[in-house]
UniProtKB/TrEMBL annotation:
Residues 1-26 form the signal peptide. It comes from Pararhizobium capsulatum DSM 1112. Keywords: Signal. The keyword Signal applies. This is Uncharacterized protein.
Length: 125
């Protein structure tokens, strides 16, 4: 009976199920803006800071995104005005949410998540 329980536990283990499951690929549409991974890293870092409640650090990290985005504005805007506009609007919301005198953690998390979603697929928004 013990052996049966051990075998059953092994067969139901998350590691085995993951190994047997087919890989799931992210359904991210390629952006005409090109490689946005640098922006995604910064936004994801911010979301992690917001999620753990460190709004002060997230507020500082927002400046990194804003600076990098602004430095690349001319090039990105020329590639696709619409996609650039969607991401820029989402960035403005995230920046505004974090730069409030007393940022609301829920609003900041939603705004930064929205920015990440816009970076993943700007034409869905």
């Amino acid at each position: 009976m013990k052996k049966l329980l051990v075998v059953a536990a092994f067969l139901c283990s998350p590691a085995l199920l993951a190994a047997l499951s087919p890989p799931v690929l992210a359904a991210t549409a390629p952006s005409e803006l090109g490689d946005l991974s640098e922006f995604k890293v910064i936004a994801t870092d911010r979301l992690a800071l917001v999620t753990k409640g460190d709004l002060t650090a997230a507020k500082k990290r927002i400046t990194d995104f804003e600076t990098t985005w602004d430095q690349n504005e001319a090039t990105l805007y020329q590639k696709n005005h619409d996609e650039w506009g969607v991401i820029d609007d989402a960035a403005d919301l995230a920046i505004g949410a974090l730069r409030k005198g007393s940022p609301d953690p829920v609003e900041a998390e939603q705004a930064v998540s929205g920015l990440i979603n816009a970076l993943e697929d700007p034409m869905v928004h």
